[in-house]
What does this fold into?
Amino acid sequence: MTLTVGRMSGFATIQDRGRPGYRADGVPPCGAMDIVSLERANALVGNGGAAAAIEWALAGGTLRFSASAVVAVTGPDIELTRNSAMLSTNVAVEFGRGDELAIGRLVRGTYAYIAVRGGFDVPVVLGSRSTYLPAGFGGLEGRRLRAGDVLAIGFAAKVRSKPKTPRDSGPAGGEATAIRAVEGPNTAAFSRAFAKSFWASEFTLSPASNRTGYRLERESDSGPPDRSAVSEPACVGAIQVPDGASAIVLMPDGPTVGGYPKIGVVASVDIPALAQRMPDDTVRFERITVEEAQRLLRERRSLAGR
Amino acid sequence: MTRDPAPLELAPLGDGAILITLGDTIERAINQRVHACVSAITDAMIAGVVDIVPAYASLAVHYDASVAEAQEILGRLRDIASSVAPGEIRPESSVVTIPVRYDGPDLTAVADATGLAPDEVVARHSAVEYFVYMPGFAPGFAYLGDLDPALQLPRRETPRTRVPRGSVAIAGLQTAVYPHETPGGWHLIGRTDLLLFDLEQDPPALLRAGDRVRFEPVA
It folds into this structure.
């Protein structure tokens, strides 16, 4: 069974939950920007947690099914149709042979996830089916999807006997919600005044944001932080501060090492909410302890059933 | 009389990693201690650890927060890192030879800027046995040092938007090979056909932290 990409004006790649384990080779963890929405899509169609889905950013496109399939689309707020009839997100829907799924506007949010029962059958590269665009591997031929692509639907993926409706694991995080972060590790690179103003600031998400990093800007007359340190390891969520008026939060395709000082690291549990922010949205941070961040992550994982 | 203990700082790097800092300069001795820590932590096979990433004077231990808690893993890592002697060197690392055609687009500019003949640039670049300080920037990319000080130049003022795969480049006291076509600001002096990142291999990166590297001029 296959799925054919018809129209494609969005930016879509195959993603799963990522490929940790290769950072010492310079390979970032990769994987879904919003792991909660990916897991929800897989759970809705009865897939195991390791199945790959389509991660869809920006508006517009169609997918056609060669045979009947069970499909779910998740993400904050997306216009969807099946054969021109309106369709809801966050439910499992049966598609028949020749049916067309059209993805319209992302009304709210940046990434939608399209899961099909059985998962997408692309090769596993370094332990994952996730596309890593900067080095051109994973997913479908290491690239974004385009019109005419044919994706095989898997049989091998672990399929649950019956689709499971995931319990709601909390709000995806509206714009008003602060993004929680753990302070440090390069606390010494910032003056007390700089840190105080940074954590109290409202940032605006720049359109120059992608799977590698989210760029945040603020009004500030602060000078640059101390940049005397040599490059050191980085991680997903690291809040790098290149100058007084901006910050770059590393996302799943971000580099494994970096030279900018890190004032904090976004809590893993809030990476999905940050990923769904749109250009020009406001972002505020709230500091929490590492213990609190880990407790929240465990709580979310037990809600998701893993 | 006891010697001052070597610097050792551990701090959480978010909720999924611990950063271990052993110094704040690019020095072979500090970097070798980083690699010795990587070996010791690898050998300890701590439950929940998923990645151990060396850098110049620090390393990160990434772990699964549902398996290990921050303070517990920080304590284990402190015990291990503090028992690694400062002078300790990683068990014998391999020597990798990289054949290079020294015909890079910046070879003449490098010769002009350093006041050396192009042949002399090639001779000095290929005379040294380099050391892999740090992986990163891109899959398979390795920061190699130390370059002959006569070849030391700052990065290009305008980075190239496309550096071809296999380009051999220099900047500061470092040299590297670009494993993929990427943007880059280093000076390109040659090119190799050797694959620096091969998905058919395990591990996929040819150059690993602590390895030694030689460049061999070929026609």
Remarks:
- Chain B touches chain A through 48 residues (CB under 8 Å).
- Chain B has a mean pLDDT of 92.
